[in-house]
Write a structure and sequence with these properties.
The chain is of the alpha/beta class. It has a single domain, classed as Rossmann fold (3-Layer(aba) Sandwich). Helices cover about 35% and strands about 20% of the residues. An eight-stranded mixed beta sheet has the order 1-2-4-3-5-6-7-8, sandwiched between helices. Helix 3 crosses helix 4. The termini are far apart. This is Alpha/beta hydrolase. Keywords: Hydrolase. One of its GO terms (molecular function) is serine hydrolase activity. It comes from Flavihumibacter solisilvae.
Length: about 260
Amino acid sequence: MNATSTNTWSRNGYSVANNLKMYYEIYGEGKPLVLLHGGGSTIQTSFGRIIPALAQHRQVIGVELQAHGRSGDRDSEISFEQDADDVAALLQNLGIQKASVLGFSNGGTTALQLAIRHPVIVDKVIAASALCKRNGIPGGFWDFMKQATLNHMPQQYKDAYNEVALNPGDLQTMHDKCAKRMVDFKDISDEQLKSITAQTLVVIGDQDVMTPEHAVEMHRLIPGSRLAIIPGGHGAYMGEITTLQPGGNNESFFVPMIERFLDN
């Protein structure tokens, strides 16, 4: 399974960041844009449909986070803060002093933490379907997460993990760490969100997992941020793999929108 039609990366590999073996792929040339995938996902399952278009005008750096895809794991829980620190260390290893970041879902939460914890290296942030407050999702979600099992994980995610993982047998471990992180989710404080200095675009679907009201709250707390509410579900606006439908082409709207944001 690969959501992209061809492997178009100019280079890929591993780099040790904070004692974690992290996988990355680099596409295109120009100003750097880092892609941070959603929970349980890979670079391709989250961004495969939009990487070719984005790489026409900039250097795109896809990253796989702790326990995900081709990256390694630690004998510890995963956290958004640690993921942000790992991305910062990876960029330093790659010699990238400043980059914009597009994070989707859990990757969007990590992108916000990156802007909070490492503001010097972050140019602009696109927080796509990101969560920063527990009340941003209806209560039934939290009850579901407490009972989540591997059987609930979308088959597309399982297939993608098993295809590329260093140790495919660790799928259960990855699932359990992701589920626990969500069960234990702690709000990003108003003060932290107000401290973000990077120009930020908040993106959400009008039928997303998070509520539109949550996106509006983020927009109002992050200084000078912009807000886009797009028709569709969780990641449908960029062709996330679980949302793909025959004839669908929502990313043809999303890519020009974020390119305008990044270029202005």
